[in-house]
Amino acid sequence: MSTAEGVSVPEGEALRSKIQGLKWAHHIALGPYTTPGMWSKRHQDWVRDNLPQDLSGRTVLDIGAWDGYFSFLAEERHASRVVAIDSFLSPEHHKDTLAAFELAKGVRGSKVEYRVMDLFDAEELAESFDVILFLGVYYHLRDPIHALERLRSVLRPHGRLFMEGLVAAGSAPVLRFCEPGEIDPFTFSIATVRGVVQMAHAAGFREAKLLGLSESLWKAWLHATVPRSLRPRVAAFVRRRTGRGRGLPRAIFELGL
Ligand SMILES: C[S@@+](CC[C@H](N)C(=O)[O-])C[C@H]1O[C@@H](n2cnc3c(N)ncnc32)[C@H](O)[C@@H]1O
Question: pTM for this structure?
Answer without folding.
Answer: 0.89
